[in-house]
Design brief:
The protein is an alpha/beta fold. It has twelve helices and eleven strands. Strands 3, 4, 5, 6, 7, 8, 9, 10 and 11 form a nine-stranded mixed sheet that branches. Helix 3 packs across helix 11 and helix 5 packs antiparallel against helix 6.
Length: 400
C-alpha cells in the first residue's frame, strides 16, 4: 500500500516557485521501535513570512518571466519529453536486438545481445529488455518473495532517496539480499546501498558533489564530477555486491527509445559506467547528445524506465517527486505520504537540476526519512519482510 494524493494533470507539476520556508524542529533518526509515528514532526511545521496587503488603484503589471540557468532549461526540456513517454498509453512492438543474421557493422558477443522483452507489471505500456547473459544469471538465483525497492529518477534530489533508504535499512525493510532497482539518481542510491556504506556518509559525499557544482557550474561538467565522487566513494568490490541484486535502467537509442535493464557488472568501472549512463541527460551531464554503453548509444534511464522493476516478486516504488501530480500510480513512498508538503513541485524541480544548499540537502534527507516512516506505519515490517532462504530457484520465470 502506498501514499496516494489527488491526481491532476502532468502539466500541474511545472508551476511557479514558492517562497522559501524555515524549519522549526530538529530531527534525530531513530528506529520505529522507539518512535511513535503519530508524533513525528510533519513538513507543515514552518515559519511563514507575513503577507503584506497592498492596495493600489492601478492594475498590477504582468509577472516577469522567471530566468532559468542553462542547466535548468536543459533539464526541463528533457523531463518534459520524459513525462510524455511515461504517461503515453501507446506501446509499439520492440524487435530483438542484434543477432547472428544482422547486417549491422557493430558485432556483439552472443551473450550481450537482448534475450528477453517484457512488459512492466504496473505500467503495461513500458517495455524493458534483458541480455542473454543476465537472463542466464537470473535463472540460477532464487525467487525473492520479500518486496524489492525501486528508486525513481530524481536528478540532484537523491538525498531524498538516501533518507528513504536510511529508514528502510534501519528498520529491517532492506537487508543485504533485498533486490533493488533504480534509474538515474535512483541507480546511484542502489549502488550506494549495495556497497554497504552508511547513508549519512553518502549524504556527505552528496554535499561534496553539490559544493563542486555550485562553484564550477553544473551543466556540461556534472558527469565528470559524479564519476570522480563514485570512484572515490564506492568500494572496489561494489560490482560483486551489486551483481544479481541491483538493476540499473538505461535508455537505448534506436528508432524509438527503449528501456534496458542491467544487473550483471564485470567490474567497478562497468558499474560506474552503467550508473553514469542511467543518469545521462543529454547536454546536461556532458556536452554531447548521448553516451556509449556496451557498444550501444544510450541516455538517461528515466526516459523509459522511471522506476524500473526489481527481481523480486513484488516491488515497492519510491518517487522523489509528488507522484499524484505526475500522474504516476502504484507508488509506495513519495512526498504524497505527507500531502501537506510545503515544498512546491517547481521548487523540487529546481533542486533536482541545480545543486541546493547543504541545509536543503539535509532537509531532503529528512523528508525521505519521514515519508518512509509514514509508509511503514501502514506496512509493518513483520508483515512485509519474509525469510527467503528456503525459496526455490527462479527456473523459467523470464518471459521469453
Amino acid at each position: 500500500m502506498g501514499c496516494m494524493a489527488p491526481t491532476p494533470s502532468i502539466s500541474s507539476f511545472f508551476i511557479s516557485p514558492s517562497q522559501a520556508h524555515c524549519y522549526r524542529h530538529t530531527f534525530r533518526f531513530r528506529s520505529t521501535n522507539d518512535v511513535n509515528l503519530t508524533l513525528l514532526p510533519t513538513r507543515t511545521q514552518f515559519n511563514y513570512p507575513p503577507r503584506v496587503q497592498q492596495h493600489s488603484t492601478t492594475p498590477s503589471p504582468p509577472p516577469l518571466e522567471e530566468k532559468k540557468s542553462f542547466a535548468v532549461a536543459t533539464g526541463e526540456l528533457f523531463l518534459g519529453i520524459a513525462s510524455r513517454l511515461i504517461n503515453s498509453r501507446e506501446s509499439t512492438p520492440v524487435v530483438m536486438f542484434e543477432n547472428s543474421n544482422s547486417n549491422s557493422t557493430v558485432m556483439y558477443d552472443e551473450k550481450e545481445r537482448i534475450g528477453a522483452v517484457m512488459k512492466d507489471e504496473i505500467q503495461s505500456d513500458v517495455i524493458w529488455e534483458q541480455r542473454v547473459k543476465d537472463i542466464e544469471a537470473e535463472r540460477s538465483r532464487r525467487v525473492v518473495t520479500t518486496p524489492g525497492f525501486s528508486f525513481s529518477a530524481a536528478g540532484l534530489l537523491f538525498p531524498y532517496h538516501l533518507g528513504v533508504a536510511h529508514f528502510l535499512i534501519q528498520n529491517g525493510y532492506i537487508k543485504e539480499t533485498t533486490p533493488l532497482a533504480g534509474s538515474s539518481a535512483g541507480a546511484i542510491v542502489c549502488a550506494v546501498v549495495a556497497s554497504g556504506a552508511s547513508m549519512e556518509e553518502a549524504l556527505i559525499a552528496t554535499k561534496i558533489l553539490a559544493e563542486d557544482c555550485r562553484k564550477g557550474g553544473t551543466a556540461f561538467r556534472l558527469g565528470a564530477v559524479l564519476r570522480d565522487i563514485l570512484q572515490k566513494f564506492l568500494p572496489d568490490d561494489v560490482h560483486i555486491r551489486s551483481n544479481g541484486r541491483v538493476r540499473v535502467a538505461v535508455t537505448q537509442l534506436l528508432w524509438r527509445p527503449r528501456g534496458l535493464l542491467v544487473d550483471q557488472f564485470d567490474s567497478k568501472e562497468d558499474l560506474i559506467n552503467a550508473v553514469f549512463t542511467s543518469s545521462f541527460i543529454p547536454g546536461y551531464l556532458a556536452p554531447k547528445p548521448a553516451t556509449m554503453f556496451r557498444n550501444r548509444l544510450c541516455i538517461d534511464g528515466g526516459l523509459t524506465l522511471f522506476m524500473p522493476p526489481t527481481s523480486a516478486a513484488q516491488t515497492v516504488r519510491v518517487c522523489a517527486f509528488p507522484a499524484g501530480r505526475m500522474g504516476l500510480q502504484g507508488i509506495g513512498i513519495s512526498p504524497d505520504c505527507n500531502p501537506e508538503n510545503a515544498s512546491s513541485p517547481r521548487q523540487l524541480l529546481n533542486w533536482a537540476l541545480e545543486p541546493a544548499e547543504d541545509v536543503i540537502l539535509d532537509r531532503l534527507f529528512e523528508f525521505g526519512y519521514l515519508d518512509a516512516a509514514v509508509w511503514a506505519k501502514e506496512n509493518p515490517v513483520e508483515k512485509l519482510v519474509q525469510d527467503d532462504t528456503t525459496a526455490p530457484a527462479f527456473g523459467n520465470s523470464i518471459v521469453q
